[in-house]
Amino acid sequence: MFRNELLNSFSEELQWLEADLQPVKLDVGDILVEPDAPIQHVHFIESGVVAAVTTTPDGRSLEVFSVGREGMTGVSVLLGADRTSWRSFVQGAGSAFRIPTWAIREAAERSPSLRETLLRYAHSVMVQMAETALALGHYSLNQRLARLILMSHDRAGSEELLMTHEFLAMMLGVRRAGVSEALALLEGEGMIRSARGKVIVRDRTKLISMAGGSYNRLAAARPAIMRVPTENAFSAGTNRQH
């Protein structure tokens, strides 16, 4: 049984994938997709978190989307492209099953049901990207930081998240000083504890309240997009407190 939700949702479709799936370790900082370079492999994440960022010519970066065990990297190949403009790297260490790009394309051609599921997942990534753009334009830094912590918490499977101030500043497109102030506010309200190189979630309910619509819309949309039972979706309404 796979931990990855996409792989675990398949039954007879797995016959088109299993022979080419290879287990791999994901170390923090590993680059899985380079911008404007051919995508050689797709990774189905079993554990850990992968972040995708886009970068300006002068080196400034911004969050595009993130992936955990609910999904896969390299969604562009599902849409007929062989490369993309963003970089995907490992934010939180874990493991994955990788498969060559040619193999997943061939499997999708052979199995309409597999292709349909993969395309629904690609659509869910588009929804996440749209919500990220909305958050950037219409929500405060404190709200966007809470959203980013919640999304990482969903995927990491741990209360302790590896997040440096530099990483958060890059993902949110702000200066490090702004991140430090926002972290201090969230910590003062008892939502998190900020330690060197990490953020520890203490009160998820308060984080959800702080993030507001920037998180709730995304969490609510996913079950409908992927056609999975609500209880299997990210726990947007849970009241985990620590």
What does this structure look like?
The chain is globular. The chain has 8 helices and 8 strands; from the N terminus they run αβββββαααβααββαα. The chain is an alpha+beta fold. Helix 2 crosses helix 3 and helix 3 packs antiparallel against helix 8 (213-226). It folds into 2 domains: 5-135, Jelly Rolls; 140-232, Winged helix-like DNA-binding domain superfamily/Winged helix DNA-binding domain (Arc Repressor Mutant, subunit A, Orthogonal Bundle), CATH 1.10.10.10. Strand 7 (192-195) and strand 8 form a beta hairpin. The model is unreliable at 228-242 (pLDDT under 50). Strands 1, 2, 3, 4 and 5 form a 5-stranded antiparallel β-sheet that branches. The chain has helices at residues 5-9, 101-110, 112-138, 141-156, 165-172, 176-188, 204-211, 213-226; strands at residues 22-26, 31-33, 41-55, 61-67, 87-100, 160-162, 192-195, 198-201.
Reported for the largest beta sheet, the result is: 5 strands, antiparallel
Count of domains: 2
Helical proportion? 40-55%
Low-confidence stretches: 228-242
| Overall form | globular
The CATH class of the largest domain is identified as Mainly Beta
* Mean pLDDT across residues: 88
The CATH superfamily of the largest domain bears the name Jelly Rolls
* CATH architectural group of the largest domain: Sandwich
Q: Decide which structural class fits the backbone.
A: alpha+beta
